From TrEMBL:
Keyword Hydrolase: no
GO molecular function: DNA binding; sigma factor activity
Pfam family, one: Sigma70_r4_2
Database matches in NCBIfam families: sigma70-ECF
Domain RNA polymerase sigma factor 70 region 4 type, residue spans: 114-165
Record keyword Transit peptide present: no
Keywords (A to Z) from UniProt: DNA-binding, Sigma factor, Transcription, Transcription regulation
Protein name: RNA polymerase sigma 70
Domain of life of the organism encoding this protein: Bacteria
Family of this protein: Belongs to the sigma-70 factor family. ECF subfamily.
Amino acid sequence: MEESLISEARSGKASSIEKLYKHFYGYAMSVALRYTNSRDEACEVVNDSYLKAFNKLDQYSTKSSFKGWFRRIIINTSIDHYRKNVKHYSLLEIDNASSESYDSDAVDSLTKSEILNMLQELPDILRIVFNMYEIEGFSHQEIAERLEIPASSSRTYLARAKQKLRDKFKALNEIRDEGAIR
């Protein structure tokens, strides 16, 4: 079904383009939300990603997964969005993060929305580096090249992101514990 939909969309059939958009919209939003501060920004990234994908649909090879091809477009569009708006963000002070232990059972109790909220609360550069390294599997050198930063900064940003997530996780657990005591 997906192959015929893509084939029809390549030929410019409007109904197929619309079906393809609707079919992958939820997936596209889930990827974009990990890289952006808000739902509005994610919508902007998703729409820009769809424009790029539909304009380059003839470059998609059916030998690979459309979902994977489209994910790369969304990630690259998210990075472009960050670069375009970086002048509006303040640069972070880079500190080394210390490691801290955590209760793995408590991590399992986190909901998808709590995890997403914690990620979205991270400063942009930390969230992007965390997603690229931990979720997408980019190396620090690849991240450095794409974000035009030193690889050492990528490593530091990742450590900082993990520390901030630990702090947010700890604060969330403290709130939960207080609620359980009452």
